[in-house]
Amino acid sequence: MRFILLVLFTTICLSASAQWNPFKKKFVRPEAEHFTCYSITRFAPYKLPNSKIRLITFDPSDYTLEAAEDVMMKTAQHNMRFRVYHDASYNFTELAHMYVQQSRYSEAIWYLLQSNNISRQENDDKHTIENLIDIATIKAKMGEIVLAQQDLTEAHDLAYSKGLNEYLETIELAGQYITQHKLPKQKPVLIYADGAEKNGKSE
């Protein structure tokens, strides 16, 4: 009797479970047919227009110029204190460029002259020539055409004697600009830095 119940119970369990059914046929997934959608080909490809971004530049504010001037002045003083004269010469040139942006031409020329004194001692002929060109340009803006041409002549002679031919064309173009675009004489802003000559200051 026990044997019959065991066989009957085993048969019922096996028939209830599909995974243990040895007579169950395996399900075979039909292969998917290759399907191509041609509807997208009816539309022409759309290209997004290339947006042109215009670069907008703003003139530096007075606060920005004053902050940059303060940083450069401290850097120049540091280099002069520790006798890093080569770097100090370029610091003075940067200061001069800042003063030109503020139309403070007298100060700009003074610092360019200080830079030239150092560059001559350091035999940095390229920097000396660049400073002379800057001085000539500033003097032309101030209406001092004759003095500007003298500085360009000095720069030309120095470049020629040292074989720095790459500066000759620049000097020639600067001379043409000064000759063809004679600017009206402008009254320079007499705001002198510490140590600058104060010949024009009456008080």
Element layout with pairings:
Layout: H1 2-16, H2 62-81, H3 85-101, H4 105-121, H5 125-141, H6 145-161, H7 168-180
Helix pairs in contact: 2-3, 3-4, 4-5, 5-6, 6-7
What's the gist of this structure?
The protein is mainly alpha-helical and 203 residues long. Helix content is 57%, strand content 0%.
Q: Would you write up a description of this structure?
A:
With about 200 residues, the protein is an all-alpha fold. It has a domain of about 120 residues: Serine Threonine Protein Phosphatase 5, Tetratricopeptide repeat (Alpha Horseshoe). It is built from seven helices and no strands. Helix 2 runs antiparallel to helix 3, helix 4 runs antiparallel to helix 5 and helix 6 runs antiparallel to helix 7. The radius of gyration is 42 Å and the shape is elongated. The C terminus is likely disordered.
Q: Give me the number of helical elements.
A: 7
Named at the architecture level, the CATH assignment of the domain at 64-180 is Alpha Horseshoe
Spell out the helices and strands N to C: HHHHHHH
Bin the strand percentage.
under 5%
Number of strands: 0
Could you say which overall geometry the principal axes of the C-alpha atoms support?
elongated
The parts where pLDDT drops under 50 for at least 5 residues are 184-203
End-to-end C-alpha gap: 135 Å
Helix coverage percent? 55-70%
CATH superfamily of the domain at 64-180: Tetratricopeptide repeat domain
